[in-house]
Amino acid sequence: MALLKKKAESVASIMKTIRGEYPVIEGFGVTVEAILTKNTKVAPVIHSFKRRLKSEKSIEEKIKKKRLEGALVSSENIFSAMTDIYAVRLIHLYPQDIDVIHGAIIDHAAKRDWILVEKPKAYTWDPDSVNFLKSLGLKCEVKPSFYTSVHYLVKPKKNSSAVCEIQVRSLLEEVWGEVDHKVKYKGLNTDERVVEHLAVLARLIGAGSRVLSAIQKR
Q1: Second label for 121, Cα 20 to 30 Å away, from 1, 64, 83, 148?
Q2: Which superkingdom heads the taxonomic lineage of this protein's source (predicted)?
């Protein structure tokens, strides 16, 4: 007799598990924000700060998308399958400011304020940026979309369900990210002309970043 295939857990059941952990996740995210914004080395180079707690609708859509892609998402693994329920974003002005911020995040991990879930990852398409980011010990990955940002995943302790994604990017990179977000929201990300315009904008952002680097070095 053939074994019956186990029925996938309902999305509603997974969401119930997430709701139960929302206070813990948000509480840790707020703690991460407080630690970074009060850091005397980080504060001077931060232009602005953003936070985001993923809405239930967004989480449900992501669970369904992951399942369509073949992922086995359940209450048991949801907090490792979805690590961006809470995210904080540090926006800096000059490209080299990432050096200070990266050092602070690693220092706080060494002090056990949090632990790194995985090796920090830098998304960039610019060869010059790749060389600089690799010199900091960051793993670099190229996104076809020209998305640029440095991501860290931290949690308070090994077995905690609370994971906070720390995103670090320059003000110019934030401009590109906001435009890209609006494009996707309007469903224009498959329009070839729009995609080409985004690529041109990314290159202009890259040129602007080089100018800012030159100014910072004066």
Answers
A1: 64
A2: Bacteria
